[in-house]
């Protein structure tokens, strides 16, 4: 997530958060994705957040910059700037609001891929974008664009992961976009998760994914069940409001949002605080 302080980026807090992810053993971080409040930052801030993330990661973590958009020209520009800043890859959300057809999605992502050398991870999240990147569209893009190498799947449907896995090459990565669906998705062929909960519990998310990947599903399930209430309550209101509230409760950031996002309701805040306490995260 993107920490703010007095209306500006809180660079010291961002560095602390990235260090916590590195210490927790995560493989990479995604600056200015959905959780990073990308719709509320301007171009200059967007690029600076990516550059600072690269600096603070210092080679310990891959940096997969959120540089998608509902304008192809904008997505190309941000992706090229991320490449200049030293990002290792880019997360490309489906264009939102204008709801292009599948051919429009194909041409959009193909255009971005043609203007960068970065590996690209597509991001299908119909609940936010109003459209889904179709299975055949993903297959077509993977076949025609060698730097489109993965998909963040946030549609909540394991059957769709099975459909994708059946038509994609083994080297094409599928990552869950929802912590609660990580194990169900991995059971049918996904490789891991781009996690919201990792902002709060990076080591535990790493252990859960690692256990399943190592053929220890029982150990992975134990972690999943322990933290499942947190996975759900981090979406009790619009992401990233709950995760920012949680990090503020833990003293890691100032709780600051940009309109139109606002603080949690008192009732939901109490629920989240109780969950953090029950999971042993908040003492």
Biggest β-sheet: strands ordered side by side in the sheet? 3-4-5-6-7-8-9
Q: How many strand elements?
A: 9
Share of residues in helices: 40-55%
- Given helix and strand content, the structural type is alpha/beta
The main β sheet shows up as: 7 strands, parallel
Radius of gyration: 18 Å
| Measured distance between first and last alpha carbons | 22 Å
Output the number of helix runs: 12
CATH architecture: Alpha-Beta Barrel
| Topology as a string of helices (H) and strands (E) | EEHEHEHEHEHHEHEHEHHHH
The rough form would be described as globular
Beta content: 5-15%
CATH topology: TIM Barrel
Mean pLDDT: 97
What is the highest CATH level, the class? Alpha Beta
Poorly predicted parts: none
Number of domains in the coordinates?
1
CATH superfamily caption? Aldolase class I
Summary keywords:
globular; 12 helices; two-stranded antiparallel ribbon; 7-stranded parallel β-sheet; 9 strands; 283 residues; TIM Barrel; alpha/beta
Detailed description of the structure:
With 283 residues, this protein is an alpha/beta fold. The protein has a single domain, classed as TIM Barrel, CATH 3.20.20. Helix content is 48%, strand content 12%. The protein contains twelve helices and nine strands. The strands form two sheets. It has a seven-stranded parallel sheet. Strands 1-2 form a two-stranded antiparallel sheet. α2 links the parallel β3 and β4. The radius of gyration is 18 Å and the shape is globular. The model has no long low-confidence stretch (mean pLDDT 97).
């Amino acid at each position: 997530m993107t920490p703010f302080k007095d209306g500006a980026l809180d660079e010291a807090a961002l560095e602390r958060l990235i260090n916590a992810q590195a210490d927790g053993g995560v493989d990479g971080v995604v600056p200015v994705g959905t959780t990073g409040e990308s719709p509320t930052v301007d171009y200059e801030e967007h690029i600076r957040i990516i550059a600072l993330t690269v600096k603070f990661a210092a080679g310990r973590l891959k940096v997969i910059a959120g540089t998608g958009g509902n304008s192809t020209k904008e997505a190309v520009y941000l992706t090229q700037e991320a490449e200049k800043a030293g990002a290792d890859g880019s997360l490309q959300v489906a264009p939102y609001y204008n709801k292009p057809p599948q051919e429009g999605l194909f041409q959009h992502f193909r255009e971005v891929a043609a203007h960068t050398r970065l590996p690209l991870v597509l991001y299908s999240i119909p609940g936010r974008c109003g459209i889904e990147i179709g299975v055949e569209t993903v297959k077509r893009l993977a076949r025609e664009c060698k730097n489109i190498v993965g998909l963040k799947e946030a549609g909540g449907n394991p059957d769709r992961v099975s459909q994708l896995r059946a038509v994609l090459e083994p080297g094409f990565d599928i990552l869950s976009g929802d912590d609660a669906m990580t194990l169900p998705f991995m059971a049918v062929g996904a490789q891991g998760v781009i996690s919201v909960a990792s902002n709060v519990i990076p080591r535990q998310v790493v252990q859960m994914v690692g256990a399943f990947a190592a053929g220890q599903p029982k150990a992975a399930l134990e972690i999943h069940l322990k933290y499942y209430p947190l996975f759900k309550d981090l979406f009790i209101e619009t992401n990233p409001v709950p995760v920012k509230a949680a990090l503020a409760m833990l003293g890691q950031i100032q709780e600051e949002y940009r309109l139109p996002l606002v603080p949690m309701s008192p009732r939901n805040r109490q629920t989240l605080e109780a969950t953090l306490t029950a999971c042993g995260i908040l003492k």
